[in-house]
Write a structure and sequence with these properties.
The chain has 205 residues and is an alpha+beta fold. It contains 4 helices and 5 strands. Strands 1, 2, 3, 4 and 5 form a 5-stranded antiparallel β-sheet that branches.
Length: 205
């Protein structure tokens, strides 16, 4: 007869040992399977975190570069606006006359006549002349010239002559004639070197 080796016939210490062994085996299997999966997930999460940190750093660099470029562009546009006030690219006779008239009003002089003259082109800019006639007291005339010098647009007063002085109370009213010359920028101004080369080529043909 086969010997009956069922657990019921084992002594209590043997039964305890078998139970402990089974529990240990289950624990080992669970540890290997579960912990291995968790460890791989943690490692993958660390790799993903590193990648995201690199992308974030690159995004911040790109944002910084964009903000810097935007700031430089804004500053250049502001500089261009300021330059256009001093040296516009268009003749702008109405704006020229309006600026002179405003200074005359503030100074108290009377602008009696004005006559725009044709532009005088230079290499990089053009002169925009306008003959002016005005009347006023000496201190008003001085204030007018000072106000012209304070305008955003560059305007020179030339060929100034005073005539017909008339006493008015303690002051003297005079008639002033002069040439107010503004300037404008010439876009795509010719290059001197290029012109000489062109002339040389034409001379050889």
């Amino acid at each position: 007869m086969a010997r009956d080796v069922s657990l019921q016939r084992l002594p209590v210490p043997a039964k305890v040992g078998v139970a402990v062994g089974l529990l240990a085996l289950v624990g080992i299997v669970y540890f290997v399977v579960f912990y291995g999966n968790v460890a791989s997930d943690i490692e993958a999460a660390k790799v993903e975190e590193g990648r995201l940190r690199m992308e974030l750093a690159e995004a911040r660099k790109a944002e910084f570069a964009y903000e810097k470029d935007l700031s430089e562009l804004t500053a250049r546009k502001q500089q261009q606006r300021e330059l256009n006030k001093m040296l516009p690219t268009d003749t702008e006779y109405p704006a020229f006359l309006s600026a002179v008239q405003n200074v005359a009003n503030v100074s108290g002089v009377t602008l009696t006549a004005w006559s725009p003259s044709p532009e005088v082109p230079e290499q990089f800019y053009a002169r925009v002349p306008m003959r002016l006639e005005l009347t006023g007291r000496f201190h008003q005339i001085a204030k007018f010239f000072y106000g012209i010098g304070q305008l955003d647009r560059i305007i020179n007063m030339e060929n100034i002559s005073l005539s017909q002085p008339k006493p008015v109370g303690e002051d003297v009213v005079v008639r002033v004639e002069g040439l107010a010359t503004a300037f404008r920028a010439i876009e795509n101004a010719p290059n001197k070197t290029g012109d000489k080369r062109g002339a040389a080529k034409k001379g050889k043909q």
